[in-house]
Amino acid sequence: MSGGSEREAPHVLVLCTGNAARSVMAGALLDAHGVWARVTTAGTHVVEHQPMSRRTRHALVSIGLDVPAHRSRQVAEADVDKADLVIAMAGEHVRYMRRRHPAAADRTATLSWLAANFPSAQPGTRETLSERVRALDLAHIDPDAQGDVPDPAGGDESVFVECARHVQRLVHDLVDRLGPDPSEIA
User: Rounded to whole angstroms, what are the CA distances from 86 to 13, 90, 101, 125, 180?
Assistant: First the structure.
């Protein structure tokens, strides 16, 4: 977080199934773009504490990212409670959140949907990320109409690289919309 900011950085939780590929890629890309948020990743059906696969590692390197230290982790109630925004990789993850963590339904949408629909931060406003997310009424958007990032699991390295490129395009489209550190707003 930049010095001088009066607000704590919002928490963005990135979610996929195994927390081994898509959420890791999106989390690393959000961090690489320097978004003003604390970014964490988790999965809906995880074998805990596993390192990312060599295919995920290769895909991250292929798009020019440093490989983050990573161990898979199951999404927990504490993660959800702290999250200002939950970025899911697919509609199935949105449905999971609505089923298992219904209080987060209004803070959860897919990366594809957010990249296309999240409102840009308005210059000169101090509206928080939470306030902007709340205004979207995400709990009423059909998860099946939000768009998925296809799971590369089972694919070869080229499938993982294509997934990383797809996630990279979506994150690029979302980053500017998330907005700057409020200390940078005049």
Answer: 5, 12, 11, 23, 18
Closest to 91 measured CA to CA, from 99, 103, 82: 99
For the chain, what are the domain ranges? 11-184
The pTM of this model reads 0.92
Taking only the tens place, the pLDDT of each residue in 36-84 is 899 999 999 999 999 998 999 999 999 999 888 899 999 999 999 999 9
Classify domain 11-184 by CATH number.
Answer: 3.40.50.2300
First CA to last CA across the chain, in angstroms?
A: 17
Q: Where are the alpha helices (DSSP H) in the chain?
A: 22-32, 54-62, 77-82, 91-100, 111-117, 129-134, 157-178
- Using DSSP, state whether 71 is helix, strand or coil: coil
